[in-house]
Amino acid sequence: MLALRTGLPLFLLTTILMFTRLSDYFLEIPTGFFISSLFILAVSIYFIFYMIYRGFDEQITDPITHTFTRQQVISILENDIKKYDKYSIVLVGIENLADINSRYGTKAGDKVLQLVAKETGKFFTNKGFDKFPIGHFKGGDFLIGLKGNYNTIRPFLEMMCLKFEDYSMNDIEIKVRGSIVDKSLSNDVSSLIERLFELNETEIEEGEYIHTISEDDLSILELEENIRYAIAKRNFSSMYQLVQADEKIAQVSFKLHGRDNKIIHQKVFMPIVNRLGYEREFEEIILEKVIATCKKIEPISFAFNISPSVLRNNRFKQRFIQMTKTANIDCSRLIIILSEKEVYANMKRYNSILQEFRALGVRFVLDNVGSLNSSVEYIKRLEVDIIRFDKVFAKHIDSIVYKSLLFGYTTMCKELKIKSWIKMVDNEETKIFFEEMNIDYIQGNLISKIINFDKLKEFVEGER
Predict the structure, then answer these.
(1) Hey, which of 99, 140, 220, 413 would disulfide with 418, CB 3.0 to 4.6 Å?
(2) β-pairing, 419-422 with 386-389?
(3) Complete DSSP assignment for 50-119
(4) Separation CA 344–CA 313 (nearest Å)
């Protein structure tokens, strides 16, 4: 219809002009003229329609932010990463965009997106970067391609995020975080983008503004291959940290061993395990290894992390029952640590699942209570056995605010008959303070260094 509305007036005007001119020379207009005119009309309308259609199909800029679209920025990044020896991809994200949209409306959210895109582009331009692509990937996330490696670009990204620390638009606070990878990890843009978002999900230290890769990060393809290999061969190593309590407890952590015994730490491998679709298989192997350790060492309980999404999986529950029944172990020795950023929608179902496990004797710990996650909401809605406070409570225990919060939490635990657990206790003074607060479980390097299986066995046998 748009093609017809555009083409018909032009066609009619041209036809009238031609008819007028021809009538000066011919008494009768040939029939072929009208046939040719209709043919020209059809071709013109089709051509206009095609151009309009291609115009819609090939839109390269995002209508809200006026940066490149996702498809276009990926296309540019793919070309640039082949062209330049040193090249980095940066992810800049507005952390509180959802809150801005709900609090101030989507129009305000769109203006914030426009502002961040504009200021980000201006910042890197002023720092001497020339002709770099910036594109709106999704939500509050922008992708930027910059010439240079990780170490070259990182200081600039930190400066830019620091600039946004106290930034606001019409009294709307804007929180910006970033992450960065370079082509040393991979030449595949899709893999690099996946790694950026995996980094974005990792915990960031207080006072920092960007998510960083570890110094020993393998290339993405090598990392994925080593993770697949470790899971297939069940090449896991277990480490233990003893906890001070009225019972023998150790927390278990795991490392993967890839080809040539390459060690991969949990912070690195967990996001990739999830992305590769090995989450349930991985957690089942963890459970298998913990149960095997329970059979080798008695009497001691083991605390270990299980993904809440896996725990809610019926196949995992059936496997759990089968494995514990076959091993004939006391399930009260299994303490599952749960941590989630977002609140699970069907809380009634979640609580029902937990109670099924608790009926077997399993105990549950809500982790990182007091941090920016779902733990406080879960305390209200889920029946658990233990809550473990976020590490900032041990780090800032001299603060009256943290002391007051901790006192409130421990009082609540006593009222609800829930046990309390503090971690990252590294000096005698804080240990004594937590003991005086009657916290049930105290964990940290002061209590026990991280040890291997043989050292754990020596300790348990020596305590008998």
Answers:
(1) 413
(2) parallel
(3) HHHHHHHHT--B-TTT-SB-HHHHHHHHHHHHHH-SSEEEEEEEETTHHHHHHHH-HHHHHHHHHHHHHH
(4) 13
